[in-house]
Every structure is written in C-alpha cells, then in structure tokens.
Amino acid sequence: MRTDVVVVGAGPAGLVLAWLLQRAGVATVVVESQRQDELGTAPKAGIVEHRTVQMLTAEGLGGTVLPFAAENRRCEFRTADESTVVDYAELTGGRPHYVFPQHELVARVAASFRDEGGTVLFEQRVTAVEQDAHEARVTTTGPAGPRELVADVVVGCDGAGSTVARSLEGAVARHDRRHPMRWLVISAAMPPLVDHTIYAAHPRGYAAHMRRLPEVTRLYLEVPGDQSPGDWPVPRLRDELERRLGVPGALAGVELPEVDVLDLRVRVTTPMQHGRVFLVGDAAHLVTPAGGKGMNLALGDAVELAHGLIERCGSRRDGARADAYSATRLPVIWRTEAFSDWFLRVISAPPGTADQRDGFGLGLREGWVTALQRDPLLRRWFAHAYAGVDPDPDAQA
Ligand SMILES: Cc1cc2nc3c(=O)[nH]c(=O)nc-3n(C[C@H](O)[C@H](O)[C@H](O)COP(=O)(O)OP(=O)(O)OC[C@H]3O[C@@H](n4cnc5c(N)ncnc54)[C@H](O)[C@@H]3O)c2cc1C
After folding, report:
1. 104 CA distance to ligand 1 centroid (A)?
2. Domain annotation covers residue 64
3. Does 319 share its domain with 357?
4. pTM for the complete prediction?
C-alpha cells in the first residue's frame, strides 16, 4: 500500500492529525493495533484546556464533531487544615476548562474521519519503521499476516511505548524521569460530590476528585511505587479516599468498577523528528496527569504538524513548516512540563520518602496552598497556566 502519510496510532493525536490531513486532500492511512471496539476504552484524560477548544473549533472540529459544553471553572486545594478554592475561569476573563472524556473524543473523531472516507487499519501493530532518501516504510503484523506500507512521511502517534520513537534511537535524545510513587486511577459510579475539581494535598498522600460524566466521577489516590490495585480492596480504598478528600461517609455504597494504576513518568524527546519520521503526543513526550496537560499537548502537536504536512505534501510542496515542527513545539512542551512538575510538587510528596515523613514536604505543600490563597499574582499566573489561556500582558491581577 502506498500513500502520502502513514499515521501510527488512533489516539487523540493520530486521529486529529489524520482528520485534518484527509480534509486537506493529503492521502493518509491510520494504522492501529487495537480492535475498533477496544479503541479508547482505558480511563484517561477528561480536562481540556481553553486554548485547545479554541484551536479545535478554529480547525472545524469543535461544534458538531466535538460539542464542548460542560465547563469546569473552579478547583479546590485541601490540606489537612486549609481549603482554598480558586475560581480560575474568573481570573482568566471567563475562560474555563471543558470536561470531555478522551474515549468520547476518540470515538467521535474516528467516526467523522471514516465518514469523510478516511482509512483506519485496525488490529495492525507496527513492528518496524525504516526510511531512506526516497520513502519511508512501515511493517505491520495483524490477523492477516505481515504487511508493508510505503509513504512519503510516517508519523508516530503511538503513545508512551512508541515503536516509531524506538526506530529513531541514536538519531534523537530521550530525556526521562520516573517518580517513586504511583496513582490509582478510579472511575466511581456516582455524580460528582461538588461541581469542581478537588486536589487533596493530605499528610497521608495525594487524592483527587474530578468531574467526568454526569454519573461517573474520576478519583485518584497516590500510593507507594510497589503497590497495585490488589493491595487496595474497595472498603480500604473508600475509607482512604474519604479521609484524604475530607468527605467522611460520602463514598459509602458507591461502586468503584474500574481501578487502574499509573506510574508517574515524564519524558521529552529532542528533536521530535528525523528525516521522514515525526513524533507526536505521548510518543514524543510524557507528562504526569498533574494539571491535565498530556492530551492538550498531543492535540497541539497534531494541529501544528498537520499544517506542516499539508504544506509539504499538498500543492505547495513547501517543507519549511514541517521542518520547523520540533523547534516550534518544544518551547511549549518544556513550559508545560515545568508547570506540571510544579503542580505535582504542590499536591504530592512521594510516599515513604523523607519529604513525606519529616513534615518538610508537607510544610512546602501547605506553603504553596496558602500562597495561592493569599497572593493574587500567583493565583493569576496559576489560573492562566492551568486553564491554558495566554495571559493578557496589560491586564491587572
Ligand atoms: C489516568 C490519566 C489521566 C489523564 N488525564 C488527562 C487530562 O485530564 N488532560 C490531559 O490533557 N491529558 C490527560 N492525560 C494524558 C492523555 O491521556 C495522553 O496524553 C493522551 O492519551 C496522548 O494521546 P496520544 O494520541 O499521543 O497517545 P495515546 O492516547 O496513547 O494513543 C496511542 C495509540 O497508538 C496505538 N498504538 C500503540 N502502539 C502501536 C503500534 N505499535 N502500532 C499501531 N498502533 C499502536 C495505541 O493502541 C493507541 O490507540 C491522562 C492520562 C492518564 C493515563
């Protein structure tokens, strides 16, 4: 099979990229290892930045394909003794987050892509990517045996364990870190307890409460790096969540049908391209869920590269924007990594480390929470970075 662009991975990044290329008339094939009915079933993102919604709407994906309606305007930081509610939408001139579960976004963009005549090859795992001066080649395996696709460009949108990124080893550098704690990711079958996000920076460890769907609420519980969901039977999980979130009895009888575990890793690959091969989203960089940034970054990459590839593969045959893709995106990515790293330190101290045991880490967290309470300049900076709004340099705090 020969095409202009092969997109590896039908996550948010791959599908949005493919949708934009297809609409512009660039021949594109998406290759996805999962079955169609498995796509986007793992619990993942739900918080979408204001700038992401503006960007997707400008590209024609807002409205009918992705009807962003549910707003999230406030978040609350709880320590053992203090509670600070930040009305970040008010601080950004009325610009909130939107709550839109990732699996819903993936399902809707996939359906729209196929309606427009786009091809997704499901159950095709990419095993190798090669390139030379003339073309790039992707080898896949699937139920019908191995297959080869030939393209002008291959884009790795294949997530954290990217095979496409591995094919660039030696040509790009990977900067990695792993935090010593894990988060249990819990989908609770209940409406949200309040209409905003709660971040509990508790002495026993971090916990959080986030809106997802009217009858589904996302909860997080920080646990030591050697623990797994098996160490947390439901009654223990409910007790600990209630204690850290400061909501005694609120989870009594609530079903917790899905409990997943998440290792907290961060990574940036530099540059995010080599020759005919480009990396987008989690395949290029990882950020912990602190601050809700990963999918937003992935979508920002996808839109920027789509414009570059439309100029390169379309009638203009101009590769300048695609060549500059990595240089354009990396400053945004590092800025976002820096925000998320700071945010993680505000809400969490690694369990079992001196930071948590000796009270110093807790003191630092309480220091940040009270600073957010009392310092309007810090609150304003936080509101813009968190909601994904570029600050107006002339506005007053
Ligand atoms: C619990 C949790 C909560 C999160 N919350 C938020 C949030 O609120 N806001 C936010 O912005 N981000 C959040 N994130 C991060 C966000 O989910 C990711 O950044 C996002 O999924 C990245 O999208 P992607 O398209 O780059 O990769 P992925 O979503 O990982 O998609 C990759 C796709 O590639 C496919 N694939 C992989 N390997 C191959 C192969 N060899 N061949 C073919 N196909 C392959 C996979 O099956 C998958 O469909 C969260 C993440 C987690 C885990």
Report:
1. 13
2. no
3. no
4. 0.96
Same domain, 369 and 227: yes
- Collapsing DSSP states into helix, strand and coil, what is residue 333? helix
**CA angle, 253 then 254 then 258, to 5°:** 135
Coil vs helix vs strand at 24: coil
State the residue for tokens 């935090």. Answer: 179
What is the C-alpha separation between 368 and 346, in angstroms, rounded?
6
**Beta carbon of 121 within 6 Å of any ligand 1 atom:** no
Provide the pairing of β-strand 147-156 with 2-8: parallel
109 lines ligand 1 (CB under 6 A): no
- CATH number (domain holding residue 203): 3.30.9.10
**Whole domain around residue 220: which residue ranges?**
178-263+350-387
Tens-level pLDDT at each residue, the chain (397 residues): 899 999 999 999 999 999 999 999 999 999 999 999 998 787 789 999 999 999 999 999 999 999 999 999 999 999 878 889 999 999 999 999 999 999 999 999 999 999 989 999 999 999 999 999 999 999 999 998 999 999 999 999 999 999 999 999 999 999 999 988 899 999 999 999 999 999 998 888 899 999 999 999 999 999 988 999 999 999 999 999 999 999 999 999 999 998 999 999 999 999 999 999 999 999 999 999 999 999 999 999 999 999 999 999 988 899 999 999 999 999 999 999 999 999 999 998 765 566 666 678 888 888 899 999 999 999 999 999 999 998 776 665 4
- Residue 323 lies inside a defined structural domain of this protein: yes
The response to whether residue 31 sits with its C-beta less than 6 Å from ligand 1 reads yes
Clarify whether residues 190 and 302 are in a common domain. no
Mutate to test the pocket of ligand 1, among 282, 287, 329, 337 (most ligand atoms within 8 A of CB): 282
Give 11 Cα–ligand 1 centroid separation in angstroms. Answer: 6
Cβ 205 vs Cβ 355: under 8 Å: no
Dist CA 394 CA 285 (whole Å): 33
Query: Distance, CA 159 to ligand 1 centroid (Å)?
Result: 5
Query: 46 CB less than 6 Å from ligand 1?
Result: yes
